[in-house]
Recover the amino acids of this structure.
């Protein structure tokens, strides 16, 4: 293989690449812009900033001690941002998507909830209006609300005026009921014990003067598993990996289409008439595409490091290996496009779709956990997933060189497969 | 210098070239004429190594051309019918690239570029991007790109398509110079007057077969003329040999 023709092909492709400002912008600036945007909207709380809160509208039509305690508990919750409109306004803000959930506490809720607490009454209804497009937030609100309702109801039942009244009223009801005698006796004994409990001074209820009633029997100590206890998750690391790989694939696809254009314009006839091997021709294209790919990743991550504080907290060598394998995979993907494509125009459309599918399934746009289980398993055949996972491992996850081995080998495997198919399917004969 | 022996090429059931034989000697320009679809470009493609012949041989100075990396390919220069140039690059960058494909580098490459640009009259536009060139200038640069490695044989596939008379004349003069330097030229064209002016020998090909292979005078002598009338033109000869039915 002559080195002069190979180097000439690489230099020529790079000259052509940089001679097209649109291609350069598409390759370098656009991924930075999109990754910055995605990084900002998916960023978690920083050390000093408030976590983002879920907007909840609460309509208290009951105005009982229990309902007021629920509102008070929700209002104090760090995860919720509570507003208190009337019912019509609450329905309107949810319908318009301005608030994901509205909770309506109907009249009589407190009394009914108290009775149902001891298992003797109808369960009180709590109306929840929600935006169906924000199901994750709805599930979170449901969980948080359960905690506040249970705390409010139990506190009243074990210490509040409303609770006392409910117990007073419930004992004769139980005695008059058709419940089996042994169950009836047990329940009445329990409620009389509660009445005795009411007579004790509140300060004796617990050693630390905590309010009476049921509380969460545990606290949660959250720890984000990032590169270290002192490191916060940097969402820009993931978004720059995803967007970097996406535009790397787009750049490679463009270079593949460029081969089809060269063929259309008769340039490939000139290349093929020279005494150079097929291997040199493909190698020249592969090397130039790999260089463009590495430049794309270097510029993207360079920007992320300088502006957004992204750090390679794993292995620098591992990061380079994954970047190289990723760029090589993209380069051979470009060759595959050139080998399988018929015309530049038709190939461009198909290629755009293929790249978008690949990066979406690879988790570059949305995390793969939102996919169905079968799809999550299926994405192991998508090279972008290995690239994104590998980049994440080397950046914010802070995993060492061992974390780079599998993604690198898999990406190199894809590169070999793409190159093999491209070499077999490439149209070498020029009429 | 160039000997084409019994070349045959089929595409599926279509026989594009069938038993084509001719030769071109140093200092000789051979015109390869034929209607559209006659097999001219397929023949040129096989000579340039772009297509593999089903049968037959291409001999370069007595050596059979064999494979992509055959050193004999260095003795062939191709000037394709398309303007096979990179519009976004300068003339100089284009020639530097095409020269490097033949392992030219350094001073040798610079001298080859200068000589080729000088020959086609584009030395003063070396630093300009090709996209700023006129059609005629691009044609001349297309010719220069095929000359860089100083080939003994030049394959010219309709090199004057779409150029004005001035550029066409300039190209003709270039070809005369190359002939005088001992190059063997194979020239395909649809323009009969070009073949009449330039060709030392004319090969007419139709339906993939050689139907005539002679000098201009020899071809003319094959067509009967009216007593006392002017001699037959090449076009008359061509239409006599290939018929008047439309081919596309």
């Amino acid at each position: 293989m002559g080195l002069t023709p190979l180097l000439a092909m690489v230099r020529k492709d790079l000259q052509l690449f940089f001679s097209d400002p649109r291609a350069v912008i598409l390759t370098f600036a656009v991924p930075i812009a999109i990754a910055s945007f995605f990084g900002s909207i998916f960023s978690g709380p920083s050390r000093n900033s408030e976590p983002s809160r879920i907007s909840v509208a609460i309509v208290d039509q009951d105005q009982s001690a229990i309902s007021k305690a629920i509102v008070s508990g929700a209002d104090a919750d760090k995860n919720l941002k509570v507003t208190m409109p009337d019912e019509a306004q609450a329905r309107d803000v949810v319908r318009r998507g301005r608030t994901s959930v509205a909770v309506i506490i109907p009249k009589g809720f407190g009394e009914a909830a108290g009775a149902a607490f001891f298992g003797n009454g109808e369960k009180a209804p709590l109306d929840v209006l929600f935006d169906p497009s924000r199901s994750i937030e709805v599930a979170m609100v449901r969980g948080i609300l359960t905690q506040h309702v249970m705390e409010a109801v139990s506190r009243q039942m074990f210490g509040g005026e409303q609770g006392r009244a409910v117990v007073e009223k419930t004992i004769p009801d139980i005695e008059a009921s058709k419940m089996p005698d042994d169950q009836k006796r047990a329940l009445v004994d329990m409620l009389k014990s509660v009445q005795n409990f009411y007579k004790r001074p509140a300060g004796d209820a617990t050693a630390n003067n905590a309010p009476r009633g049921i509380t969460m029997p545990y606290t949660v100590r959250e720890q984000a598993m990032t590169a270290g206890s002192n490191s916060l998750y940097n969402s820009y690391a993931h978004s720059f990996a995803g967007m970097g790989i996406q535009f790397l694939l787009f750049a490679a696809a463009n270079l593949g289409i460029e081969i089809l254009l060269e063929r259309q314009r008769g340039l490939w006839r000139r290349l093929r008439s020279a005494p150079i091997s097929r291997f040199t021709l493909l190698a020249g294209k592969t090397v130039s595409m790999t260089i463009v790919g590495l430049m794309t990743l270097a510029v993207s991550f360079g920007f992320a490091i300088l502006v957004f504080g992204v750090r390679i907290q794993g292995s620098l060598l591992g990061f380079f290996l994954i970047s190289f394998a990723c760029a090589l995979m993209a380069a051979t993907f470009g060759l595959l496009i050139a080998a399988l494509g018929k015309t530049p125009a038709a190939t461009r459309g198909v290629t755009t779709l293929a790249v978008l599918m690949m990066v979406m399934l690879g988790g570059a746009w949305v995390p793969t956990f939102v996919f169905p289980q079968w799809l999550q398993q299926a994405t192991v055949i998508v090279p972008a997933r290995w690239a994104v996972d590998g980049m994440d491992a080397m950046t914010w996850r802070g995993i060492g060189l061992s974390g780079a081995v599998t993604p690198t080998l898999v990406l190199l495997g894809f590169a070999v497969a793409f190159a093999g198919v491209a070499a077999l399917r490439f149209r070498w004969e020029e009429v | 210098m160039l000997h084409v022996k019994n070349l045959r090429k089929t595409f599926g059931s279509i026989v594009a070239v069938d038993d084509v034989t001719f030769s071109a000697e140093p200092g000789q320009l051979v015109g390869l004429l034929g209607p559209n679809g006659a097999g001219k470009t397929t023949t040129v493609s096989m000579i340039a190594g772009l297509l593999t012949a089903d049968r037959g041989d291409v001999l370069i100075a007595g050596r059979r051309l064999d494979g992509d990396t055959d050193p004999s390919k260095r003795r062939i220069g191709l000037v394709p019918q398309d303007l096979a140039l990179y519009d976004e690059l300068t003339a100089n960058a284009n020639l530097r690239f095409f020269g490097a494909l033949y392992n030219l580098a350094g001073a040798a490459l610079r001298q080859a570029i200068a000589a080729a640009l000088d020959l086609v009259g584009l030395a003063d536009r070396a630093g300009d991007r090709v996209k700023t060139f006129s059609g005629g200038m691009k044609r001349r640069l297309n010719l220069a790109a095929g000359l860089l490695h100083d080939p003994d044989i030049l394959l010219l596939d309709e090199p004057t398509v779409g150029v004005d008379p001035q550029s066409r004349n300039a190209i003709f003069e270039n070809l005369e110079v190359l002939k005088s330097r001992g190059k063997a030229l194979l020239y395909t064209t649809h323009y009969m007057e070009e073949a009449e002016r330039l060709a030392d020998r004319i090969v007419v090909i139709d339906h993939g077969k050689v139907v005539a292979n002679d000098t201009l005078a020899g071809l003319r002598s094959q067509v009967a003329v009216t007593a006392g009338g002017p001699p037959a033109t090449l076009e008359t000869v061509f239409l006599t040999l290939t018929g008047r039915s439309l081919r596309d």
